Amino acid sequence: MNFQRGQSREDPEINLIPMIDVLLVIIIFLMLTTTYSKFSGLEINLPTADVTKQNEQPNEIDVAVTVSGQILIDKSPLAAADVPAIAEALRRAAGDRLDPLIVINADAKATHQSVVDVMQAAQTAGFPHISFATQNTR
Q: Rounded to an integer, what distance in angstroms lies between the CA atom of residue 60 and that of residue 96?
């Protein structure tokens, strides 16, 4: 039974243009409100340790930094661990050697400040060549 004579039946149609407009507005909104974080970093090449042990050079000054912050220069402990005292001890240890290499052996749990103090003392004493000792993980 068709009670609506004379009226043609219209097929429902989905109008896509308003939906596309709304989606484009949402995309533009998200693009404008999103923060893009830029990670700025330094590219550094970390030194690697050789497997074979290097022979000790006669122009080296060994500086050891213990966990407690005590500093030993060529296996002799220092009374004071401040920068001027370390610099004076480095000058005495260098003696008449020209441009010695300062090798820092720091304990893994030593404070950074102790190592920085040794580096600053080496700079104060006029020794620009500093190296860090490493050990194998074996």
A: 13
